[in-house]
Design a protein that fits this description.
The complex is a heterodimer of chains A (423) and B (274).
Chain A lengths: L6 E11 L10 H10 L1 H13 L6 E12 L4 E5 L6 H9 L6 E7 L2 E4 L12 H11 L4 H15 L14 H13 L5 E4 L8 H18 L2 E5 L3 H7 L2 E6 L2 E7 H12 L5 E3 L11 E9 L9 E2 L4 E9 L6 E9 L4 E6 L10 E9 L8 E10 L4 E15 L2 H5 L21
Chain B lengths: L4 E4 L7 H9 L1 H18 L5 H21 L9 H28 L1 H4 L8 H28 L5 H31 L3 H14 L14 H5 L2 H14 L6 H32 L1
Helix pairs in contact in B: 2-6, 3-4, 3-6, 4-6, 4-7, 4-8, 4-10, 7-10, 7-11, 10-11
């Protein structure tokens, strides 16, 4: 297969100068005052910076980023906050130029970094559809052609001639997204835009995006923190870490890599005394993942019990702090929460070791993240909450795996072994 | 792949490609202008009448105080029409200038989210002001009929040149200020004061002849040439001073080029600083 990439990025770099104590812009007034107050220091600084004695603090938001995207691919870009995802998207859209490197884009590019860019509150829904459409790069003809379907999708036909300042926020977002969803570029760049609106509308948007990608074979780059959205839309992912590409590959692997990288250290953690999470009532000393033999394990079998051991200290009586575990899927969705029983013995000052046992055949073979908290239940007071205390993989036991095609991953947050009866 | 190819790389200062790009985005230019006009005439109750009332009331007040009370000379023509001609061009200039210099801040939310040639914004701003100019010209036509002035055909032909000079002066200066405004936000507080001062340094309420042998100082201000020539062309006050006009034209052209160059030079940082 010899298809030309639709996006070809080579050695993209973006350098920013770090400016301390400045909130983005300065007042000319202040600059002039500095010159008047201490002309010599100003001159000295200027000379230093010109001659290069005083090095400016620089940092590369992106460095040596190269990748190819082929026509029709839907690619997710994931990474932590500040990893450079949005900067990459801004460079691809042309909003800000790269410091180094080159990108070739073949075809019409449209970007969706925000819904409702350029919406004017005084203008009516109808007028804003045209204005926003034009800002997003649609021609007047295209907008006119899609007008009815935009209005229908947004469900605002009754308020079409009302200024959008009178819209509810839901209507506003619906209209804004609807315009964006009807863009017809060859390449679409999407930032975290689905984070707006209510859950139902988000679902509708995702549905629309899926429809668009499948039907029209559009190339999409999609930045999001919503792993569920990434996994349902993208086949391929780019993981960005500290301004460079860490990995490119199929979504499942990359998302796993990203999420495992997120948890700081595997399955055992012991905090030094001065760094223990907690307050003056309770603090966390250590936590680890164990099996029935009491040994630390680095992964778990799906058909074995899994123990989460928590060692915590109670420093003040009278609060009845109770440890609890929060189990998340690798999409950062809650699987379940469990807390220790109410027990007066837990209230005395001292160090406690408690273990929560997840029964065998409950978790699916996937990556799970355990959050640990210690809290007083009545009235609710959280003394500590370590969000990513343990991260581990549950793997299929070999005997079970032989029973069916192992390559097929069974979907689901949990996979309990249920009792079946036959008649 | 037959469609267009975009190449993104570290930006240099401006080239001919920029003009082609501007042309490709002409529809957006139309929509920005349309938005500005629509919003303006929607927000104000009296709508388009505002464009007429503003210079008209200024003219009445100026006539009352400078013309009738202060007995300001007006090159032998009725003061109302004398001052109105000046005001018309002055207002086109000053409103374009202040609009252009604020254009980036005002459209901050769009600039940081979508790409388009940024020059579209100031251009659309000036087009909006030009519409105001046209509407306000109705009053001038009325005054000319009332006072019985018949403009020369050659005089009317010169008007577009005067508008081009005004356009160049306001956009050139405006682009320069707009670029600085992104970094130094206090420019916009200083600007109204600066424009007000400039009004008195331009022969709007008085004739340039009032300065006597120092009138060459006034000639340094390109708007002097514009307003003088407008009066000469429309009202026949003095013969058109072609030398003055060509000096104004060249000065403004240079201002415009410097403005665009500087704007293009810092354009790439806008999205990072804003």
């Amino acid at each position: 297969m010899n298809i030309e990439p639709i996006i070809k990025a080579r050695n993209i770099g973006k350098k920013y100068k770090i400016r301390h104590n400045l909130g983005g812009y300065v007042a000319l007034r202040d600059v002039i005052m500095t010159i008047i107050k201490s002309p010599f220091r100003f001159a000295k600084d200027k000379i230093k910076s010109i001659t290069g004695i005083k090095t400016k603090e620089e940092f590369w938001a992106l460095k040596d980023v190269s990748f190819d995207i082929f026509p029709g691919e839907v690619v997710g870009i994931i990474g932590r906050n500040g990893a450079g995802k949005s900067t990459l998207l801004k460079i691809l859209t042309g909003i800000t130029p790269p410091t180094t490197g080159e990108i070739h884009l073949h075809g019409r590019v449209a970007s969706l970094l925000e819904v409702g860019t350029g919406f004017h509150p005084e203008l009516t829904g109808r007028e804003n559809i045209f204005l926003n459409g034009a800002i997003l790069g649609m021609t007047r003809k295209e907008i006119a052609k899609n007008f009815d379907s935009i209005v229908e999708f947004a469900e605002i036909s009754k308020f079409l001639d009302t200024p959008v300042k009178y819209y509810s926020s839901g209507m506003y977002v619906r209209l804004a997204f609807s315009v964006s969803a009807h863009m017809e570029p060859d390449i679409l760049l999407v930032d975290e835009v689905l984070a707006v609106g209510d859950a139902e509308f988000q679902k509708k948007c995702l549905g629309k995006m899926e429809e668009v990608t499948r039907k029209q074979g559009r190339t999409i780059l999609f930045v999001s923190h919503n792993m569920a959205a990434i996994q349902s839309l993208c086949k391929k992912c780019i993981l960005i870490e500290k301004g460079s590409i860490k990995n490119i590959g199929n979504t499942e692997d990359i998302v796993n890599q990203y999420l495992s990288g997120n948890a700081k250290e595997g399955t055992e953690k012991i905090w030094p005394e001065e760094k223990r999470p907690g307050n003056d009532i309770a603090s966390l000393i250590s936590t680890r993942l164990i099996n029935r033999e009491g040994k630390t394990i680095s992964y778990a079998y799906s058909d074995k019990e899994i123990g989460i051991e928590i060692v915590h200290e109670v420093k003040k009586p009278g609060y009845m702090p109770i440890p609890n575990v929060h189990v998340f899927t690798n999409k950062a969705e809650y699987a379940f929460i469990s807390h220790a029983d109410y027990n007066e013995n837990l209230d005395k000052v001292g160090i406690y070791k408690s273990t929560a046992w997840i029964p065998a055949n409950i978790l699916n073979n996937s990556t799970y993240i355990i959050g640990i908290a210690v809290s007083t239940m009545i009235p609710l007071q959280v003394h500590l909450y370590e969000r990513e205390a343990i991260i581990f993989q549950v793997i299929e036991d070999i005997d079970n795996a032989k029973k069916y095609d192992y390559n097929q991953k069974i979907p689901g947050v949990v996979r309990p072994k249920l009792e079946w009866s036959y008649e | 792949m037959n469609t267009l190819t975009t190449i993104i790389k570290p930006k240099k200062t401006f080239s001919l490609r920029d003009f082609r790009e501007l042309w490709n985005y002409r529809e957006l230019l139309y929509f920005f202008t349309w938005r500005d006009l629509k919003v303006r005439y929607k927000q104000t109750v009296i709508g388009a009448a505002w464009a007429i009332l503003q210079p008209f009331i200024t003219m009445v007040i100026f006539t009352l105080f400078f013309g009738t009370l202060a007995k300001m000379p007006s090159d032998g023509i009725p003061y109302p029409i004398f001052v109105y001609t000046g005001l018309l061009f002055w207002q086109f200039f000053s409103s374009s200038l202040s609009d252009t210099s604020n254009v980036l801040i005002a459209n901050q939310s769009i600039i940081t989210k979508v790409y388009f040639p940024r020059l579209i914004l100031p251009i659309s701003g000036v087009i909006t002001k030009f519409v105001d100019f046209l509407i306000a010209s109705i009053i001038l036509a009325g005054l000319m009929i009332y006072f019985g002035f018949i403009p020369h055909i050659s005089g009317l032909l010169i008007i577009p040149i005067l508008l081009i000079i005004t356009f160049m002066a306001s956009v050139g200066t405006g682009l320069f200020l707009a670029s600085i405004n992104v970094k130094y936000r206090d420019i916009r507080y200083a600007l109204p004061y600066f424009i007000q001062m400039l009004l008195f340094l331009t022969p709007v309420i008085y004739p340039a002849s009032i300065a006597g042998k120092y009138s060459w100082i006034l000639a340094l201000n390109p708007m002097t040439g514009v307003i003088q020539s407008a009066r000469a062309a429309l009202l026949g006050t003095t013969p058109i001073n072609w030398v003055l006009l060509s000096i104004s034209f060249s000065t403004c052209l240079i201002i415009l080029i410097i403005g665009i160059m500087y704007f293009k030079k810092v354009e790439r940082y806008f999205a990072d600083i804003l």
